[in-house]
Predict the 3D structure of the following.
Amino acid sequence: MSSERERTYHHGDLRRAVLTAALDVIATEGPTGLSLRDLARRAGVSHAAPAHHFRDRTGLLTAVAAEGYALFADALTGAPDLRERGVAYVRFAATHPAHFQVMFQPDLYRTDDPDLLAARARATDALRAGVADIPPDGRGEDDRLAGVAAWSLAHGFATLLLSGNLAEALEGRDPEEAFRALTGLIFTPEERRDG
């Protein structure tokens, strides 16, 4: 077997190599810039090789989203309270921007994929646990709306951060510290709101 054939058909971890190349492309060009043929070239394998792992572009984006949700769930689970879960949310977006871009665009991937569903359920449970930790008088009567409020704040901040829209407002401040300060401005104890 020639070395060219070995290079083309044998790869130590082709799935990981293609995922890594895809994340690089997404981070610089967005998800629309993905092509399995280009990713195969980057990984140094035949143009058909990625299809063995991902079937098609949608399959690849499904794998990116599933991996993203698994990493996201891990990041959220380690946080001690809702505020720090929000900080973990912002940190995840900043350190995994390609995953973050894909995860919240369900039109890009197969939403019924079992790995994706399991990872997303773990992340959702971690977010809900943070809301459940708030005393009932601090979260209102509707736990779901309290969860949406917390999610909106963290997701909105993370999205604005990634798109470069907070650079001027943050004036060089650490985004995580700025997010903590923001939550203190918005979610104040009841006695401060009433007084």
